[in-house]
Amino acid sequence: MWYTLLILAVGVERIAELVVATRNERWSRARGAIVSGQGHYPWMVALHTSLLAGCLAEVALADRPFVPWLGWPMLALVVAAQGLRWWCIRTLGPQWNTRVIVVPGLPLVTGGPYRWVRHPNYVAVAVEGAALPLVHTAWVTALVFTVLNAALMVVRIRCEEAALRLAAT
Q: 86 exposed, middle or buried (CB, 10 Å; 0-12, 13-18, 19+)?
């Protein structure tokens, strides 16, 4: 029961992200934003939705147990990933989005977690994608998400870097 509530809480958090992203997209478009990467975005949404569904399905269908020595540290990583994600959102302010949207002429953000890592939000996604299923030993979901997310991040980061270079010229 509590694992289902955790997954639902993460789902609510995703909805909150989409609300922020929609508001930020309006802000960016009003300033002449360039939108890139429309082709991979539906795949990203499907992958993240499948992560949540996979967590619940694998635990239920494969009767995965909660193993305290694994579950509690993974829960701590999930919470840390949420903290990092919202630190990224706060640091980027209206420039943060779930889509690749760049406003030409704005300086590259180098504060907050961006001081140390070029794409810290993707670190949060990778950690959460592995840890959330492992809270309840859903190792197949963790493995599949990690592999598919790595492939998607190659595409996403290349797209984002190209958009940033284009906006800087």
A: middle
* Confidence (pTM): 0.93
User: Cα torsion at 70, 73, 75, 77 (round to 10°)?
Assistant: -130
Reported as a single tens digit per residue, the pLDDT across 54-104 is 999 999 999 999 999 999 999 999 999 999 999 999 999 999 999 999 999
Contacts of residue 145, defined as CB under 8 A and 6 or more positions apart, other chains included, come to 47, 50, 51, 54, 129, 130, 133
Domain residues for the domain of 21 are 2-168
Number of domains observed in the structure of the chain: 1
CATH assignment of the domain containing 160: 1.20.120.1630
Radius of gyration of the chain (CA): 17
